[in-house]
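Lecture notes, unit on protein representations.

Consider one protein chain, 178 amino acids long.
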Amino acid sequence: MVGIVEETIEGCEYTCDNGVLPRPKIPKPPQTQPYDCGSYGLNLDTSHWPGVKSCCVEHDKCYGTCLSHKATCDQQFRQCLKSACKVLKKSLTHELDPERMDETIDDIKNVHSMDVIYSVGKVDEEVVDSCMTLEKMFVGAVETFGCSAFQGAQRRVCSCSGHDDGNSNETVAGSTMV
């Protein structure tokens, strides 16, 4: 059966054109491309910004979870990137003091990586400023151009056949602007 991705003002949703609720394919198909920061054949080197790659990985995993919501994945991605940049800034300004550690630990948890901890004393103001620019650029990119990446990930992990055998050969007929 064919899966349809419907793009509306609110976002991008994956639905089955036969009225069946998409279900996870069992077993889940293997990831065909590495999780990374990029799409459409473009991968960005994020090694200058500790924690950013883990945000991208979690975002890709969210897109690749059947019945996930693109808007939720994108919001979590935004929060993760903001937290990564915030921790980098704190490491630059030496605000990683014990009095505020609970707040910093929450930021680190949002990043899903301990890489940001190892950035203390290793970043400069340019890295922090560019991190905030990168965050805006990445969030803008996924919100503006992410529907087809979301659609491809959902098509790969969801079945519209009514059973979870993972053997259906559905294809996405296209996006419909509503």
